[in-house]
Design goal:
The chain is of the alpha+beta class and about 180 residues long. The protein has helices spanning about 25-30, 70-85, 115-125, 165-180, and strands at about 5-15, 35, 40-45, 55, 60-65, 95-110, 130, 135-140, 150, 155-160. It has two domains: about 15-100, TATA-Binding Protein (2-Layer Sandwich); about 100-180, TATA-Binding Protein (2-Layer Sandwich), CATH 3.30.310.
């Protein structure tokens, strides 16, 4: 597969799960910057560097969103857990950390006519949605790759649903290969 596209990591979502619950009231006191969620029992922590958001649930689950890499998200969670320990929270074990989703965007640099490719994708692949009056791209789900794509007539592609950034890059390369097959 060729890499004739530029990739930008837009968002990596990582979860951490403790085997025990967390006391949200105590966390809110220990972390005054924490904001309670209105619709469900959780606290949000918005960090400026790196620019990520942590959602902390009473169940013991922590979600980190907005990171630019798996390592960045895991590091933020690790630092948060260590800060909780320094503030006196008893955490008998480290949480299980897992990447949930990696979102990347790419600008294809192929000689495919993007507008025509979008139309062809919509007709060739049954798992597509293309309504240009309502949305200027096509939603594509290829049979042989896990994530889904938003493909725009400008050549921009957004890939969602991969478990790693590497898998997302490989999926974009597979999509480009399919687009090149549709050229003729």
């Amino acid at each position: 597969m060729s890499n004739s596209f530029d990739i930008a990591v837009e968002n990596v979502v990582v979860t951490a799960k403790f085997k025990h619950g967390l006391d949200l009231a105590a966390l809110a006191k220990a972390f005054p910057q924490a904001q309670p969620m209105r619709k469900f029992p959780a606290l949000t922590f918005k960090l400026k560097r790196p620019r990520v958001t942590l959602l902390v649930y009473a169940s013991g689950k922590i979600v980190c969103t907005g990171a630019r890499s798996e390592a960045e998200a895991s590091s933020v969670i690790g630092e948060f857990v260590e800060t909780m320990r320094r503030k006196g929270f008893v955490l008998p074990s480290d949480p299980e950390v897992r990447v949930e989703n990696a979102v990347v965007s790419a600008l294809l640099r192929t000689d495919v006519n993007a507008k025509e490719a979008v139309k062809r994708l919509a007709t060739v692949y049954k798992a597509t949605v293309y309504e240009p009056e309502g949305f200027p791209g096509v939603v594509v789900k290829l049979r042989d790759v896990e994530p889904s794509f938003l493909v725009f007539s400008t050549g921009k592609v957004v890939c969602v649903g991969s478990k790693t950034v590497k898998a997302a890059k490989e999926a974009v390369a597979a999509l480009e290969e399919k687009l090149n097959e549709l050229k003729g």
